[in-house]
């Protein structure tokens, strides 16, 4: 019974998202063009953020729309924005960075920056959720990582959050220290759907957290880290992207499976992407593990990816010798033969609704090139 309320809410939210996707049809390339103060090509609901715009801070623009159901676009002018972003609304919200290269993440000129970590001598210890540069979750409790094999016990009546959150051409950075000093998230998404296009997430430890009932899709994006920099309970699909190794600690992935009353395919799936050291000066040949199991239900799959010489010959490793966390439920694989990979070969086969049904993909931008 505990799943019925979130399921009803999500069914309504999906209907809203479908309407919003139609209403938000616009010329992204024109909208994002530098000097577009008149917002040509942008939806009428577009808000602008910048030094001389209506809003100088991105979070102020987000707060101005609150929980209104209308779909919104926020267009952010180039610059460094030192702030944490928190998205709780259910209605569609897309963040766009101004750029003359909307199909090239390396030309992004909008940086959202935060400096925080947990578990260090300076900061003390608190939940990882406090550190994130960008958080998408309906409530603070929904975003908490917690501890132990099942993590924080999110209240069962927690509603699903944003059904169609997107970013295009932004960089999210948590640069507490230039090495893995403790969990320092650039992205945290739970109880929500998020699409990230031409977006960069840069940190060193626990860069991307996909929490419970979180769904994240990344296209032509970059994630940089050193230790366990993809982790979580939910589902993350990455394609045509760059996984940038800033060092080797733990594993690239560290997923924590979840017991459910239905078949689930929660995990991380990295497709048709490049996994390589961040720069040629790093002496990490054969030292980086593709992943290690946060609990025995860990699932991470690399499919048709280029792996440079940083990757260990074994591919994956145990959590530790004393506590391997590997059993018959553990899925850690690197595929070249897609016939073996059939159960996980498309987004419709892995993204699920809270009730357990597959096919939760209406929020994914299938052809995002401007």
Automatic annotation (TrEMBL):
The answer, when asked if Hydrolase is one of the entry's keywords, is yes
Name of the top EC class for this enzyme: hydrolase
The Pectinesterase catalytic domain, residue ranges: 181-323
Q: Sorted alphabetically, which Pfam families does this protein's record hold?
A: Pectinesterase
Pathway in which the depicted protein is active: Glycan metabolism; pectin degradation; 2-dehydro-3-deoxy-D-gluconate from pectin: step 1/5
Keyword annotations of the record: Aspartyl esterase, Hydrolase, Signal
EC identifiers of the protein: 3.1.1.11
Give the Gene3D superfamilies listed for this entry: Single-stranded right-handed beta-helix, Pectin lyase-like
What is the residue range of the signal peptide feature? 1-21
- Give GO MF terms, alphabetically: pectinesterase activity
Q: Which GO terms describe its biological process?
A: cell wall modification; pectin catabolic process
Note the InterPro entries from the entry: Pectin_lyas_fold (IPR012334), Pectin_lyase_fold/virulence (IPR011050), Pectinesterase_cat (IPR000070)
Family the UniProt entry places it in:
Belongs to the pectinesterase family.
Q: What is this protein called?
A: pectinesterase
């Amino acid at each position: 019974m505990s799943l019925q309320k979130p399921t009803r809410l999500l069914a309504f939210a999906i209907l809203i998202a479908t309407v919003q996707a139609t209403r938000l049809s616009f010329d992204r390339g024109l909208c994002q063009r530098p000097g577009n103060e008149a917002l040509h090509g942008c939806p009428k609901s577009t808000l602008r953020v910048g030094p001389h715009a209506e809003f100088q801070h991105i979070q102020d623009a987000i707060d101005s729309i609150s929980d209104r159901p209308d779909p919104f676009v926020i267009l952010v002018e180039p610059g460094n924005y030192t702030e944490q972003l928190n998205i709780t609304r259910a209605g569609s919200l897309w963040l766009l960075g101004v750029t003359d290269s909307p199909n090239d993440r390396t030309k992004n000129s909008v940086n959202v920056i935060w400096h925080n970590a947990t578990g260090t001598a300076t900061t003390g210890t608190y939940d990882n959720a406090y550190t994130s540069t960008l958080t998408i979750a309906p409530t603070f409790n929904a975003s908490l990582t917690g501890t132990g094999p099942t993590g924080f016990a999110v209240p069962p009546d927690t509603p699903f959050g944003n059904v169609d959150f997107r970013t295009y051409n932004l960089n999210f950075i948590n640069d507490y220290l230039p090495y893995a000093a403790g969990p320092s998230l650039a992205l945290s998404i739970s109880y929500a759907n998020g699409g990230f296009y031409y977006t960069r997430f840069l940190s060193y430890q626990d860069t991307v957290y996909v929490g419970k009932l979180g769904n994240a899709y990344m296209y032509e994006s970059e994630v940089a880290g050193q230790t366990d920099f993809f982790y979580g309970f939910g589902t993350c699909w990455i394609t045509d992207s760059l996984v940038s190794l800033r060092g080797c600690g733990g594993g690239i992935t560290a997923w924590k499976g979840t017991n459910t009353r239905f078949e689930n395919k929660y995990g991380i799936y990295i497709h048709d992407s490049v996994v390589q050291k961040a720069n040629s000066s790093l002496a990490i040949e054969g030292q980086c593990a593709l992943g290690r199991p946060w609990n025995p239900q860990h699932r991470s799959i690399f499919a048709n990816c280029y792996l440079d010489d940083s990757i260990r010959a074994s591919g994956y490793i145990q959590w530790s010798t004393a506590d391997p966390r590997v059993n018959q439920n553990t899925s850690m694989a690197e595929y070249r033969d897609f016939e073996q990979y059939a159960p996980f070969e498309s987004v419709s086969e892995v993204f699920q609704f809270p009730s357990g049904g597959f096919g939760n993909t209406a929020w994914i931008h299938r052809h995002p090139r401007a």
